[in-house]
Amino acid sequence: MNTNPKSAGLQQSRIKKHIEELDSYRFFNLLTGPKLFSIVEKLLPKYRERSYPPTETLSMFLSQTMSADRSCQNIANKMAVKRIDNRLLVHNTHTGSYCIARQRLPVSLISELVRCTGKLIEEQLPVHWCLQGRPVKLVNGTTVTMPDTLKNQEAYPRQRGQKAGLGFPICRIVGIISLASGTVLDAAIGPYKGKGANEQTLFRGRLDSFDAADIVLGDAFFSTYFFLAEFIARGVDAVLSKMGHEKSRLIFARDKNWVGKIIWSPMRG
Fold first, then answer.
1. In angstroms, how far apart are the furthest CA atoms of the chain?
2. DSSP letter for each residue of 146-202
3. For residue 144, which phi and psi values (nearest 5 degrees)?
């Protein structure tokens, strides 16, 4: 601590600001709260007492992704300041241990927490946020680049045309999102290319995310016979773009007077 009163005051203000900005403790309290604790405990891997236990590591990771400065050094520094403020044992601020602990987090834990939190949020939505009381779920795909590690290179190919040793592995993601809340309800991940790496294949594994009376909103990738048949069986209505026709959309609905009828209507705008 600086001995100059003015400098010490500024230093204390900066420390207080760091503490207030650190929301990893809030995430930790949520993960260990009554609604999520059982899921976290069930899916945690076996671990020894380390500097960064899995639950604390996940809390820090969530805080890191939500921060304007997403560097590992930033979150390590903030955690050290928080520990000092609470008179706890302070780990060194080197990022190596934190990065290793983060890599140990199982993907199954994060995936299940996404589904669980999405369900909890949906259950609390006002009914009038839905379309005539019916949930609308968006489905869409995207790609993200990944760290250039040997394991990622083996599992997730690069772009076509990239020379060996250049570029980053690419992961494909298909997500199901609530239109009312913007919450991710479920997601599937896979390689960018190769057998079974397209959006349709990933989406097939997530059809159980839909319930009777849901409405699906998606693009032309999902307006296939297979998905339409699945929607009929599940009592789900769908609004999908028509493959090959940019200025039309496919509305597929079930009604007591006409079941499985397909309507083509022009898109506006």
1. 82
2. ----HHHHHHS---TTPPTT-S--EEEEEEEEETTT--EEEEEEEESSSTT-SHHHH
3. -135, 150
Contact 62, 24 (CB under 8 A): yes
**Nearest-angstrom CA–CA distance, 135 and 118:** 13
> Interior CA angle at 49 toward 43 and 50, to 5°?
100
Q: 147 vs 84, which has greater pLDDT?
A: 147
How far apart CA 254 and CA 265 sit, in angstroms, is: 16
Contact 54, 101 (CB under 8 A): yes
What is the rounded CA–CA span in Å between residue 219 and residue 245? 11
Gap between the Cα atoms of 247 and 263, Å rounded: 14
The total number of residues written for the chain in this structure: 269
Residue 13 has pLDDT above 80, yes or no: no
State CA 195 to chain mean position distance. 24
Residue 117: its H or E element:
helix 107-123
Q: DSSP letter at 251?
A: E
- The DSSP element (H or E) to which 56 belongs, if any, is helix 54-66
Model pLDDT for residues 217-254, shown as the tens digit of each residue: 998 888 888 998 999 899 999 888 876 655 555 555 55
Structure token digits, residue 157: 């190919």
- What average pLDDT is seen over the chain? 80
What are the tens digits of pLDDT across the range 43-55? 887 777 777 888 8
CB 266 within 8 A of CB 241: no
Which pTM does this prediction carry?
0.74
Distances (CA, A) of 259 to 225, 236, 247: 15, 11, 25
Confidence of residue 260 (pLDDT cuts 50, 70, 90): very low
